[in-house]
Design brief:
The protein is α/β, with parallel strands linked by helices. The protein folds into five domains: about 1-45 and about 755-860, no CATH class; about 120-220 and about 605-745 and about 890-910, ABC transporter transmembrane region fold, CATH 1.20.1560.10; about 290-410 and about 445-490, Rossmann fold, CATH 3.40.50.300; about 915-995, Rossmann fold; about 1005-1114, Rossmann fold. It is built from 39 helices and 18 strands. The longest helix has about 55 residues, at about 640-690. The chain is elongated. The N and C termini lie far apart (about 105 Å).
Length: about 1100
């Protein structure tokens, strides 16, 4: 006994020393790997975003911003999960595998060789599993990226979706994409489950072979029972290393699949590289531009030529205008000048230098573009102007605004230049946006200034102001004007008439009028606007006298507005201001219960998973019991020994079969249930987002960029702590409970003594979890803001690249990443300490157990065989407890994401477009506005409508005219029930619209905006989008296209009506998009027609045809 006590005390010191070494090495392991992981992810986000902004526009034509946003969030999160501590654990288990084999060979090479005979089967199965897993994870990411692309497209075009009642269609489209991804994932998990069955059966079942052969060696006198035990312990460590490493290999394989998608983009060098330092940088740019026999067709439609031998010359300082019908190639000229695309044949020169030989960034910095649809970003107006020149002072900004005629209206805003344009197309009028953009361009000092139809979307009232700003901007610059309003180009130096991609005439206004060709015909078609200036002057006088909305009535039936997109910064209905601002209350901590309820329909899978978790939880205690019986078996002799060996060999084989089936079924059932849950979370979140009132999306906290990031990121994070991982936790608790009970049975005094350390470990885990949760809540908000910047820049990539400000947006993105990165490094320190303590705690318990155990043996309170069994069960207990420690980080992140998701799900809409509530009467179209009072929540002190009253009978037209900001578009917004008036009523057929069903009301209204949204589907589907509430035939679509004067163009395309429009109609010109939007409204056959500058992007000839068609449609 004294020798035993001395040996046990010695081993206690060994365990203590190993524990200290384990603490230090584990701390370094977790700290260094997690720190390295965070650094790599921090750099990877920057590199990926930078490389995405670097790609040429033709590459974007083939991609979707939502797909790229998904990669920036979901894919990189998967990489983060696979290259951190999980990868180090794979390395750790590999080390255990090698060292276990080495010890086994050293102790008993014969038995070890036999046990390793099953190794090739395990390794082969694992290799096949990893290969299949890698392939399917790539396909899975592609499917989920498709869903993110749908979400991005729908949310970016939300007003169009809402106006045409497309919520159900878009929900179904998103749900189908998610379901396709889920089915692909399930095929992956079926492969995983089969692999787990084979590996678990081999790992646990191999012990039966070892026991049988070990018994034979003992019987032959070739080894001792001690060597058999040593081999079993070493090889058991090896075998269980293979089994335990599988979940971590899943994470690493998923990271590899996501990394392949990410690095395919990072490694891609664009054909037109805006980051390249190569190319000439001219000391002085004169501004001479030459197009020499230029042929071009867009890459996505290479068989449709746009320019066919274009040749023209523009001298330095000249102002030239390019006119022609929609689709004739006018805007394409500017795209080629900016090198968004390279030409197929010919040459474009600036100052006698081929633009392909010029440095691209220098080229774009010397070309300023004022487009038809100006883009402002979600930063203060001052910062929007700084995009023109970064190192300018506030005084210089004010000077630029004065030149651009923007200073006065900016000074009228409450926050002045600090005012944030959360969604630029909403908060400022078209004229305001264009004036701000002009201010941005005034400090670029460009030598070339293309103006893309710069006034076509501006009110006649504002045209004089904008034209004056443009005239100031054109001084001393070579200017290219692309215009439909010919009255603005009469004084230019030269006019090119473009037809079918070729200039058919060139000259001054007087010269072309005398030729009586293309330009003459267009001018004569616009002769009805000869008294335009008088009309503007009348408006000025009327506005001074009556600061209200004017209305005139004629004998036709529609509503017309010149400026629908003047909408202000809105949060929601004023009657309930807190909910109106999109407020979401705090979600309680019952998210686990709520997730379980949402998963209730998969109860057979959950029940199977729980049963298998219980079964798997008893595998380790059962193995420990069998292992303890081996100790007694080897004491037997003769025939009794042989029978016992055969019996326990069969038991080990049965345990292997049981373990394989248990682990396989656990993985399949829990994974299946989890994938259903995650798919349901995504679709329900998206559905509830679409149900919200329009004003909710104007809140910065629920901007499109942030919502897309939430949809792509939150659900996968919840998944990372559910399913098999949740099953592992349940299994660990069962194993821990069983091990603790059996340990108390074999030595309750020793078990009680050692259990005193468990509360300390539990408390440290609790504090670590609380700290991680608080930090991750802050970091999540910052990451959402970074995601918003990324999404906004990707959605407006043409503006970003034309400004040459890719680095500015990358720096903004990086700056928003800095704080969470720094805080995460602090979290890594605490996380590493907790994990290192948990790893060393088991060895400390062994040390204490050996020291205390020797005392109890000396006193006769415990026998040595029971002590061996006790340590086996004690190992089960603490090993199960420690398995949960590294998951703390995943659990806290999952809890934050679950709360975020339920925050969206719990948001109740005030104006639910999918609600069945409300009346659905037949509507004839009589309208009444009675004493409407309304102000936007962002400016409650500014009344937009003050007792507005007007009536329109069936068959009449109401024209809304007046100065900018007088409330014209507000009237239409209230009629669409985007917002709720503070006072007064809106009646349709003498029925208050508040009691009408929202979907039924909007089904009676057709809307055409001045900046139409098209979806990335065929032309046919885009037109049919206007009639989602009714059945229409192909003939109806064709007829609507003919009325909109777009049928001939569509028919000329190789794929006709099946031609894809591209992302937001990118493959079509502005006029073509607008005519398709008109056809979409016409096919709806509405009782009320809302026209917001419906023909602003059309050439004169098309405008006349379409206007006649619209007059007939009324």
């Amino acid at each position: 006994v004294n020798d035993l006590n001395e040996s046990m005390n010695t081993f206690a010191l060994y365990y203590l020393g190993i524990g200290i070494l384990s603490f230090c090495s584990s701390y370094l392991q977790y700290f260094l790997w997690e720190t390295s992981c965070e650094r790599q992810i921090y750099k990877l986000r920057q590199l990926f975003f930078s490389q995405v902004l670097r790609q040429e526009i033709s590459w974007y034509d083939m991609k979707k911003e939502g797909d790229l946003s998904c990669k920036l969030s979901d894919d990189i999160e998967r990489i983060r999960e696979g290259i951190g501590y999980k990868f180090s654990i794979v390395t750790q288990y590999l080390s255990s595998f090698v060292s276990g084999i080495a010890v086994g060979f050293y102790v008993n090479w014969r038995l070890t060789s036999v046990l390793l005979g099953v190794g090739p089967f395990v390794i082969g199965t694992a290799a096949a599993y990893a290969k299949v897993f890698f392939k399917k994870i790539v396909l899975e990411q592609m499917k989920y990226s498709e869903a993110s692309g749908i979400a991005d497209e729908v949310l970016a075009c939300l007003r169009t979706v809402t106006s045409f009642g497309g919520e159900k269609k878009e929900s179904k489209r998103y749900e189908d994409a998610i379901e396709s991804g889920r089915q692909l994932v399930m095929s992956k998990y079926q492969t995983i489950s089969c692999s787990i069955f084979v590996i678990s059966f081999i790992v646990y079942g191999s012990n039966s072979v070892g026991l049988y052969y070990g018994g034979y060696l003992i019987g032959e006198g070739l080894c001792t029972p001690g060597s058999v035990f040593a081999v079993f312990l070493s090889v058991m460590t090896t075998a269980f290393s293979v089994g335990n490493v599988l979940p971590y290999i899943n994470a690493v394989s998923a990271a590899m699949g996501s990394a392949s998608n990410i690095y395919n983009i990072i490694s891609r060098k664009p054909e037109i590289d805006s980051y390249s330092e190569e190319g000439l940088r001219l000391n002085r740019l004169e501004g001479k531009i030459e197009f020499k026999d230029v042929h071009f067709s867009y890459p996505i439609r290479q068989n449709v030529p746009v320019l066919k031998g274009l040749t023209m010359e523009i001298k330095p300082g000249e102002t030239v205008a390019i006119i022609g019908s929609s689709g004739s190639g006018k805007s394409t000229i500017v795209n080629l000048l900016l090198r968004f695309y390279d030409i197929n044949r010919g040459q474009i020169c600036i100052d006698d230098n081929d633009i392909k030989c010029l440095n691209l960034k220098w080229l774009r910095n010397n070309i300023g573009v004022v487009s038809q649809e100006p883009v402002l970003f979600g930063v203060p107006i001052a910062d929007n102007i700084r995009y023109g020149k970064e190192d300018i002072t506030l005084e210089e900004i004010e000077k630029a605004c004065v030149v651009a005629n923007a200073h006065s209206f900016i000074m009228d805003l409450p926050e002045r230049k600090r005012r944030k344009v959360f969604k630029a197309k909403i908060h400022l009028l078209g004229s305001g946006r264009l004036s701000c953009k002009n201010g941005r361009r005034c400090y670029l000092h460009n030598s070339v200034l293309p103006l893309l139809n710069g006034q076509s979307t501006i009110l006649l009232y504002c045209e004089g102001i904008v034209q004056e700003a443009l005239d100031k901007a054109m001084i001393g610059r070579t200017t290219i004007v692309i215009a439909h309003r010919l009255s603005t180009i009469r004084n230019v130096d030269k006019i090119f008439g473009l037809q079918n991609g070729v200039p058919v005439e060139c000259g001054t206004h007087e010269q072309l009028m005398s030729k009586q060709g293309l330009y003459y015909n267009l001018v004569m078609a616009q002769s009805k606007e000869a008294n335009e200036q008088e009309l503007v002057d009348e408006f000025d006088e009327l506005e001074e006298k009556v600061p209200q909305i004017f209305s005139t009535v004629s004998s036709q039936s529609s509503l017309t507005s010149r400026d629908l997109n003047e909408m202000e910064n809105i949060s929601q209905a004023v009657k309930q201001p807190i909910m109106a601002r999109g407020y979401i209350g705090e979600v309680g901590d019952n998210y686990l219960l709520r997730l379980t309820k949402m998963n209730a329909s998969e109860w057979p899978m959950l029940l199977t998973g729980m049963i298998t978790c219980c079964c798997v939880g008893f595998i380790w205690p059962a193995f420990a019991f069998l292992y303890g019986q081996m100790f007694s078996t080897f004491k037997l002799k003769g025939e009794e020994f042989d029978k016992a060996i055969i019996y326990w060999t069969a038991m080990f084989a049965g345990l292997g079969l049981f373990a394989g089936a248990g682990f396989g079924m656990q993985n399949l059932s829990l994974s299946s249930a989890t994938e259903h849950l995650i798919a349901r979370l995504r679709t329900k979140s998206f559905n509830n987002i679409l149900r919200q009132e329009i004003s909710w999306f104007d809140d910065e906290n629920y901007s499109v960029g942030r919502l897309i990031t939430k949809l792509a990121r939150d659900a996968p994070i919840v998944k990372s702590a559910s399913g098999v991982r949740a099953g592992t936790v349940i299994t660990s608790f069962i194993t821990m409970a069983a091990g603790l009970v059996i340990a108390f049975i074999f030595g309750w005094k020793l078990a009680l003594s050692l259990s005193l350390g468990v509360p300390l470990l539990a408390y440290s885990g609790y504090k670590n979890t609380a700290l991680l949760r608080s930090n991750q809540k802050r970091d999540a908000a910052l990451m959402e803001q970074a995601g918003k910047v990324a999404t906004e820049s990707l959605q407006n990539i043409r503006t970003v690249q034309s400004l040459g400000k890719e680095h500015v947006f990358v720096n903004q993105y990086v700056k928003l990443l800095e704080t969470p990165y720094k805080e995460t490094k602090k979290q890594v320190l605490i996380f590493s300490l907790a994990c290192a303590f948990s790893q060393a705690f088991l060895l400390f318990m062994y040390a204490a157990g050996f020291r205390i155990g020797s005392y109890f043996i000396s006193n006769g309170d415990i026998f040595y065989p029971n002590l061996v069994r006790y340590y086996t069960y004690l190992y089960d207990f603490f090993e199960s407890l420690f398995k949960k420690i590294p998951y703390l980080q995943d659990w806290t992140r999952a809890a934050m994401s679950a709360k975020s998701i339920f925050g969206i799900l719990d948001k109740k809409s005030l104006l639910d477009p999918l609600s069945e509530d409300g009346l659905k009467p037949d509507i004839s179209g009589k309208l009444s506005f009675e004493n409407i009072v309304f102000s936007y929540p962002s400016r409650t002190n500014v009344k937009i409508l003050r007792g507005f009253t007007v009536r329109v009978n069936v068959g009449q037209t109401l024209a809304l005219v007046g100065g900018s900001g007088c409330g014209k578009s507000t009237v239409i917004s209230l009629l669409e029930r985007f917002y709720i008036p503070e006072e007064g009523k809106i009646l349709i057929d003498d029925c208050d619209i508040n009691v009408l069903n929202i979907a039924h009301l909007r089904a009676q209204i057709g809307l055409v905006t001045q900046e139409p949204d098209l979806f990335n589907c065929s032309i046919k589907d885009n037109i049919a989008y206007g009639a989602l509430h009714m059945h229409i035939s192909d003939e109806d679509i064709v007829q609507a296209a003919k009325i909109a004067n777009i049928h001939d163009f569509i028919s000329s395309l190789p794929q006709g009506y099946d031609t894809m429009c591209g992302d937001r109609g990118a493959q079509l010109s502005g006029g073509q998009k607008q005519r398709i939007a008109i056809a979409r409204a016409i096919v709806r056959n509405p009782k009320i027609l809302l026209l917001d500058e419906a023909t602003s992007a059309l050439d004169t000839e098309s405008e006349k045809v379409v206007q006649d068609a619209l007059d007939k449609a009324r």
